Amino acid sequence: MEDRELKLWSGWGALLVLLAALVGLIGLSVYASKAHNSNYLLVILPGFVLWSVGLFGFVVNGPNQARVVQLFGKYVGTVRRTGFFYGNPFYWRTRVSLRVRTFETGMSKTDEKKDAAGNVLVPASSHRQPIKVNDKDGTPIEIAAVVVWTVTNPSDAVFRVDEYEAFVQLQAEAALRNLATRYSYDAPDTDTHSLRGHIEEVAAQLKADIQDRIRQAGVDVQEARISYLAYAPEIAAAMLQRQQAGAVIAARAKIVEGAVGMVEHALQMLSEKQLVELDPERKAAMVSNLLVVLCSHSSPQPVMNTGTLYN
What we know:
Distance between the termini: 97 Å
CATH topology of the largest domain: Tetrahydropterin Synthase, Chain A
Helix content: 40-55%
CATH superfamily of the largest domain: Band 7 domain
Number of domains: 3
CATH class of the largest domain: Alpha Beta
Oligomer: single chain
Largest sheet: 4 strands, antiparallel
Mean pLDDT: 82
Low-confidence stretches: none
Strand content: 15-25%
Structural class: alpha+beta
């Protein structure tokens, strides 16, 4: 629905008119009582009724607020200006906040409970329960996201969906669940996007997915970002071991790569300086010993050769 601006009269001018009408009705009532003329009641009574109805036409609109106005079920317009206004007393006005709002998926709130005397029995609290879903590889994970949003089309928020705040939260959780199934928790290939390794790309995709789902509610998503990401408790220990094993393998591969370079450099320097001539068998033994020393997990114990090179 196209949102259009509704211009109302100044509330201060309308207030002066109503005050003047009240003074006139009171004066007419005093005159009628002195004149003992009951015919004036035909004017005074309807006048007070109309004056009372006219009080419902005042509208106070605060900053970052909008009023979606209807007249007998028909959309009239939206009041976005801040101030004190006056309109048709029969206008039905629905207030919509235009402030920037944020929420985290999976959050549940418990209201405080009081006894008859007003004492707090159970204080208000909030509990975070991340969404549990399988990622692209079928691994169960827990995930939650923070969504920052604001209403840009108040008429759509009021007329196109029922309870737009709950609609935004439900659609955000659905979009997050769908996103998690399209990405792996972690990917060894750097070219493959993962939930843990490509935070900015995943956040941009999550924002686009949520926006597509809630655009019909007249809402704009300003930011959506994963706030919690972890393996499900039943597999967390096993996945931690896998990560540790991967880290160990990567570290050992780096050590071997460096050791090979050092051995190659040592053989090259011995050959250039002609310090000793090594046959292929002794060269292989030297390479083996150097690799053992350089790649060993613990410090090797040296063995001193007190004989000749070959004995």
